[in-house]
Amino acid sequence: MFNQIKGHSIQIKNLIADVNLGKLSSGYLFGGPSGIGKKLVALNFAKFISCENISGERQDSCGGCPTCKKIDNGQHPDIFLVTADSAKEIDTMVSSKKEASSAIKIEQIKEIGKRSSFRPYEAKYKIFIIDEAEKMTQEASDALLKTLEEPPKDTIFILVSASERMLAATIVSRCRRIKFNALSLEEMKEMLIADYRLDETKAHFLSCFSQGRLANVLKIKDKDILTEKNSLIDDFLRKKIFFKDRFDAQYKLNLFLGWLRDLLLSRLMKRPTLINIDREAELLKNKNKYTISELKSYINFISEALLYLERNINLRLLTNLARIKLCKA
Ligand SMILES: [Zn+2]
User: Fold this and answer.
1) What residues sit around ligand 1, an ion, with C-beta below 5 angstroms?
2) Which CATH class, in words, describes the domain spanning 2-179?
3) What pTM, to 2 d.p., does this model score?
4) Ligand 1 center to 68 CA (angstroms)
């Protein structure tokens, strides 16, 4: 239900208005950073549109009718979630290629076209949520465009994307765009304290570290994250640089980046908002250990390393580079 979603209140209000005013668009594009809950809003929007308990000006789905329950369980015959991962299923169905790559393929979009040509079975609309829409192949994107240009009756497409710029302009222009924003540091901190019962220091660190992306926080909120991050920072400071895999490297480098950023901000500002407030005294004591240009060069190195990691850099090479580049840090 919408009332269980944190933040995005303006976006949700607009979607509710579309339903109550009878102004539903046949295509929506939910854009904004990853991990902030766009797909969750899309699923709840589908639920709100389809819920059986409709009376007057509704503000939310009921959450309890058979339709709401089926959507929650991913079992509603008129609501479809299309993801790059669901390509695996289609791969084994339609081709001999067993290995699926992370893309939304033409076969998936054709399947959508086929399914959308039937009338809805149970609900008022057929709703297709295409997650990470930017992962559509060129062919898939062309096929979707055709469908969007002549949208089948009673069908709604919701495209979800963190990289709108990678979508074809022709597709974007066919959709009503709803822009989502990451939660602010304060919003997220308040939420982690009130709803997840985290203490202030942990909530502060997680809010900064996640940059307002709740999905990232929920993955690590139950860990003893402060002890873990401190021991990882100490490893870096003792030149113990070791990465298990790409994700491990991303995680550790991001943590150390936070430390370096704190040192730099302490040099540049009188009252910076530190990420590592639990080690504020130590940070302030050490801030003059490095020159500003040294700190900037470490930060640049890590920022570049994080980019290379997205492009599959060889891990051993990266580890060696990190040992050399950060040896004085
Ligand atoms: Zn309902």
Assistant:
1) 51, 53, 61-62, 65, 68
2) alpha beta
3) 0.77
4) 4
φ, ψ (nearest 5 deg) of residue 126: -90, 135
Mean pLDDT (whole number) for 197-218: 89
CA 197–ligand 1 middle distance (angstroms): 30
Sign (positive or negative) of CA dihedral 305, 306, 310, 315: positive
Please report which helix (H) or strand (E) contains residue 100, including its range.
none
Q: Is-contact 133 162, C-beta < 8 A? A: no
Give the distance (Å) from ligand 1 centre to CA of residue 124: 13
Examine the pLDDT at 311 and tell me if it is beyond 90.
Answer: no
Ligand 1 centroid distance, CA of 125 (Å): 14
Given a cut of 80, whether residue 20 has pLDDT beyond it is yes
pLDDT tens-digit series, residues 257-294: 999 999 999 999 988 999 999 999 999 998 899 999 99
What are the E-state strand segments in the chain?
27-31, 79-82, 126-130, 155-161, 176-179
